[in-house]
Amino acid sequence: MTDKTALVTGANSGMGLATSAGLVQKGYRVLMACRSRERGEEALARIGQSGGPGSAELVLCDLADLASIRRFADDVHGRISSLDVLINNAGVVSPKRQETKDGFELALGVNHLGHFLATNLLLDLIKPAEGRIVVVASGAYKAGRIHFEDPHLRDGYNVVKSYGQSKLANILFARELALRLYADGVAVNSLHPGAVLTQLGVNRGTGFGQGVYRALGRMPSFQTPEEGASTAVYLADSPEVEGISREYFYRSRPNRLDRKAEDDETAARLWAWSEHEVGL
Ligand SMILES: NC(=O)c1ccc[n+]([C@@H]2O[C@H](COP(=O)([O-])OP(=O)(O)OC[C@H]3O[C@@H](n4cnc5c(N)ncnc54)[C@H](OP(=O)(O)O)[C@@H]3O)[C@@H](O)[C@H]2O)c1
């Protein structure tokens, strides 16, 4: 049992739901950040049915809308006075170029900029000396670069460029944040969950992508959401991770990064650019 509190973004589906359930099983109070009240309540009911010594509650947050993120941060501050674990898990991938409410390219806007603002607005709640921040990135970062000349990909959009950029941004953000929080003793690590069968890439409005989801489900090489969530739960809760920060994990072990993801100059430049974009 624990009296710890965790917040998980994208908690209604896939690995976010499995991570939330895993932490409730370990006795955490879990704040499940979801953009849809309906899907969030369904997920909450599923977690309630599975039991567990902890508890779960729904907090609404649309990471594609800066005003919603600010309301969410206020809501969280009204509910809790400290946070042990923040898991930035929500993510999107889109075959077509789309924009967030604030005109950001969707993947960069949700996967990176939305989490960048949300994390910064919640930082005062993270417990010094023991707090942990977990960033769910992806091995797809290898296909990305930060397009500082056209970050919102107005020219020559494609899905690999978009998702790869957003996931590289996740890792650069985690490494820069780890440096900034080093003196406070807050650990920040990122991870690649592996290939996991989830609703990632399935359009929630039209259902486009469900066929691919079903076809992939017949391939044994895909992990279940619970298997995929295991590294996030490990980074959130395992005593083995104490004192470890600024690492990138795969299968609950530190993994080597390509040089571009360890480029501190790019990470600092991305941080400054992101602050400007979200108005911090
Ligand atoms: N699946 C894989 O093989 C794989 C591999 C590497 C990395 N990842 C990463 O793993 C993470 C979890 O993805 P998943 O595979 O579990 O996919 P998923 O089942 O599609 O879950 C994604 C979650 O993100 C939420 N989300 C999307 N847009 C949002 C927004 N604007 N505001 C707030 N929440 C939003 C979704 O909410 P809705 O249900 O309301 O859309 C959902 O809860 C992502 O960061 C993804 O990049 C996945």
TrEMBL record:
Keyword annotations of the record: Oxidoreductase
Any GO molecular function: oxidoreductase activity
Classification via SUPFAM superfamilies: NAD(P)-binding Rossmann-fold domains
Q: Which PANTHER family match?
A: PHOSPHATIDYLINOSITOL-GLYCAN BIOSYNTHESIS CLASS F PROTEIN, PHOSPHATIDYLINOSITOL-GLYCAN BIOSYNTHESIS CLASS F PROTEIN-RELATED
Record's family?
Answer: Belongs to the short-chain dehydrogenases/reductases (SDR) family.
Name of this protein: SDR family oxidoreductase
